Structure formats: structure tokens, C-alpha cells
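Review this fold:
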Amino acid sequence: FRIGAAKLVVVVAIFLFTFYVISQVFEIKMDANLGHIFARSALDAAARSTKPPRYKCGISKACPEKHFAFKMASGAANVVGPKICVEDNVLMSGVKNNVGRGINVALVNGKTGEPLDTKFFDMWGGDVAPFIEFLKSIQDGTIVLMGTYDDGATKLNEEARKLISELGSTSITNLGFRDNWVFCGGKGIKTKSPFEQHIKNNKDTNKYEGWPEVVEMEGCIPQKQD
């Protein structure tokens, strides 16, 4: 009986020791896993804190109060259409399938920033008359954004160029065959617009065969005040 009792004590002792060792190893692994989870969470939080903020339309800095953010790009040769974004709202793009050869125009309410209209006018194979009528119909206080695609100048006449210059453009008088051009002005503007980019079509400097590189522009448009 004593020998049996001694064996039982030994078995119980071994069991308890084994249980203790296993529990210790398990706790260590649990601690390691928890440490890994906490470290991962800390790294994720740090990554989120260092990620640069995104501003409307993807512009490089935030606009001040009572200004509308915009970003736009001309077309790329005759392959990729122009893109116009105002207040994080893409108004015209190839993805939206509302751009075309010639001059692409987006109209925006100067007080609210709300989009009013988008159109494109073929200045290679089209007629300038509808474009002139459209320009004449724009109401005072309207923000006007324009971008070329393929060719925006062949059918432009002096009347159309004058109407665009009255919106604040300075480059429209020199816009030529297959030049790339983006412009943001307004109906009733009293000065020349600071928002305009123009690259001439030049076979010696063109990025694409027959077309210059894309022109891009971003900025903050002042809200129209009463």
C-alpha cells in the first residue's frame, strides 16, 4: 500500500509539474502574441498619423475659407481627354465620357460652387457658331473652366477669342493648332485671371508626336460675394 501511495504521489507531482510548465509556455506565447498585436497596432496608428492629408480634388494644399478648390488638365494628344474637378466633384473626364475634341467647358455657380453645365465644342471639324452662342449665354458670376483636347484652335475666330478674353484669358489670342491650354476665369471678371496654362505645339519640343505635353493646373477660386 505504501509503494502504491508513493507512486501515486510521484504521478501527481509529475502531472502538476507538467501542467505548470505547459501553462508557463502558453502564457509566454500569449504574451508574445499580445505584444505583436500591440506593436502592430502602434505601427498602424503611426502610419495613419504620418499619412499626408488629402485635400479636395487632390490639390497640394487646403484652400482658405470662401474659396473653391479646383484641379484640371488638358487632353493628352488625341488619346486621353481632359479632366476638370471642382470642390472634389469631377465635372468632366474620359471616365465620365463627357469630353470631346476641341474646347471642353465646365460652368460653376460662383456663389455656391455647384456645377451648372458641361459641354465640348469641336474646333477642328465643327462649327464655331454654337460655341459663340454658348459663350454669350453665360450669366454674370459664373466660374468658367476650359481645357483643350486634340485641337482647340482651328475653327476659333476673332469673335470667339474676344468672348473668351472677356472671361479673363490672356493666352486665347495666341492659341494655335494643337496647342495645349487650360483656363479658369469668370463671367463679369474685372481683371485678367491668374489661372491659365498654355503650351505651344512645337515639333522640336513636343512630348507626343504632333502634340505637346499635358498641362495641369490647380488652385483656389474666390467665392463670389454679393
Notes: Residues 2-50 form the longest helix (49 residues). Helices lie at 2-50, 128-137, 158-165.
